[in-house]
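User: Hey, quick favor. My workstation is busy. Could you predict this chain's structure for me?
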Amino acid sequence: MDNFIFVLEIIGTIAFASSGAMVAIEKKMDIFGVNILGATTAVGGGMMRDIILGVTPPTAFSKPVYILFSILTSTLLFAIMYTNPEIMDSKIKNQFYDKIMLICDTAGLGIFTVVGIQTASRIIPYDNAFFFIFIGVLTGVGGGVLRDIMAGETPYILVREIYASAAIAGGIVCVVCRESMGEAAGVILGLAVTVVIRTLAALFHWNLFRIH
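Assistant: No problem, here it is.
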C-alpha cells in the first residue's frame, strides 16, 4: 500500500506542478516564477496538511523528491513553451490551456484528497471522519489556492465549476469505504468519485448557487 500511495503522490505532484507552471506561463512569468508556482501548487496542500498534523519538518522538506519532480516538470513545460511559442497563440492556447488545466487539476485534486486522508489516518490514533475529510480536502485544494493567490487571481475553488465539493464527496466515499472495504478500496473509490464529479462539472458547467 505504501508503494501505491507513493506512486499516486508522484503522479499528483507532476499533475499539480503542471497546472501551476501553466498558470505562471500564461501570466508571462520567467523560468524562476514558473518553477516557484509549479512547486507551490504541487506541495502547498501537503505542507498545510503537515503543519496541522504537527509533522515537522513538512514532508516536502524531509523528502525533497516531491519538490524535485515539481521543478523538473515545471522546467520541462517552460522549455516546451519557450521553444514552441505558437502554442500560446490565442486560438491554440484556449484549447490547449483549458484541457491541460482540467486534466492536471482534476488528477491532482483526486489524488491528493485521498492521500491527505491516508496520511491523517496514520498519524491520528483514533477515527475522526470529519477531521480526515477536512485534511483530505485541504491537501487537495490548498496548493491550487496558493497558486491562484500568487498569480493574482481569485482562488479557482471559489468561482469555477464544482471543485472543492468534488473533493468533499470523494473524501466521504474514501472514509466510508476504508471502514467497510479496506484502505485500497477506499483510496481507489474516493479518487474515482472526485475525478468523475470534477470532470462532469467542468464538461457540463455545473456550479453551486450564486447571486448574478
